[in-house]
Amino acid sequence: MTRLRVDGVSVELPAGGTLLDAVRATGADLPTLCHDDRLRPAGSCRTCLVRADGRTVAACVTPATSGLTVETADEGVANLRRDAVGLIASALPPPVLADSANSELADACRALGIPTHTAAAEPTRGRDESHPYVHLDRDLCIACGRCVRMCSDVQGTFALTLTGRGADTVVAPGTGGPWAESDCVSCGGCVDTCPTGAITQPGPGQGLTSRRTPADRVRTTCGYCGVGCA
Ligand code: FES
């Protein structure tokens, strides 16, 4: 077992956990835009920053070790988390930030008091609606890579990649053409994990995206699919 303190609270968790696990064990939570419990951590968005023995670290990729003192409420690190979420949000067009937007990013904005209706850049990167079951709005992509990891590590399909540089990095089919001509098997894993609504399923509920769900292990009919329907 690992024993540490989070915001003054003693926490005990199984060996191998992260600081994010430790924070959640206290009943608190952090914004985790590039993290999904079903995926290997990437540590790329920096929205989960905490202080651990005075160092600022990403909670999702930092191992919990016995004796650590973790602070999440420290004003400095709380402001860093808010800035990280705000920076990501400010680059996106208004729909994802609208008060009614249903996404992890919009939830994080509301929780941190970041205006969800700020003016933002004009849409420029376009949509890929070539596939019957998966649509991509490139302007809403924050390049968190969750869809890519879900497609490769969980589903084993390897249909997606990140392409472009810097702020222009977006998800794309690995084959380079439209989604409909990619290796996508329509499993829906990318739709399920997308934190912004960039990848959606057309039809009823279009434009909605799933919230992050706790990683419960369930029995499934097919036994190999990454979607996790019970
Ligand atoms: Fe930890 Fe993105 S959730 S760095």
TrEMBL record:
One of its GO terms (molecular function) is formate dehydrogenase (NAD+) activity. Residues 132-163, 176-204 form the 4Fe-4S ferredoxin-type domain. The keyword Oxidoreductase applies. Residues 1-76 form the 2Fe-2S ferredoxin-type domain. Keywords: 4Fe-4S, Iron, Iron-sulfur, Metal-binding, Oxidoreductase, Repeat. It comes from the Bacteria. Coiled coil: none annotated. The keyword Oxidoreductase applies. In the C-terminal section; belongs to the prokaryotic molybdopterin-containing oxidoreductase family. This is Formate dehydrogenase subunit alpha. The gene is fdhF. The chain holds residues 1 to 230 of 898 of the full protein.
